[in-house]
Amino acid sequence: MTATPVHWKLVLDTHDPHAQAAFWAAALHYEVEDHSVLIGKLLGLGAIPPEILLDHDGRKAWRDAAGVRHPEDPYDPESGAGLGRRLLFNRVPPEERKTGKNRLHIDLHGPAGEREAEVERLSSLGARVQRHVREPAGEWVIMTDPEGNEFCVH
């Protein structure tokens, strides 16, 4: 019997989930998840208080969480949650600042021969170049997202 692959998502701690979701959606050409249908149902049932929500891009959204999903992957239209490749952003208190190097990071692989153009595109979205790496194993650029999380562009 073959085991079913485990469904997973990458969750990032953040101070501004919606800003991070917007950055990473643009960086990866993903879509920001729309949870407003689920939120509307839960509000209508009185199952959630309005204080845990905010208005974002003209719709109700979770105050402390946002997600992005690959545009070609399936998603649940009732919840708006992606069922495939997905990043989630959860708000953490300001005192939980990032203090060291990431233990896990994302590697981006753009079109062959277009690394510098991709670095420029990501910089225009708010990323910053930390350094260029040239080693016998290859070349890449280490960047940080708007909150300082490292990622690599190959």
TrEMBL record:
It holds the Pfam family Glyoxalase_6. It comes from the Bacteria. Residues 10-153 form the Glyoxalase-like domain. InterPro entries: Glyas_Bleomycin-R_OHBP_Dase, Glyoxalase_6. PANTHER family: CONSERVED PROTEIN, HYPOTHETICAL FUSION PROTEIN. This is Glyoxalase-like domain-containing protein.
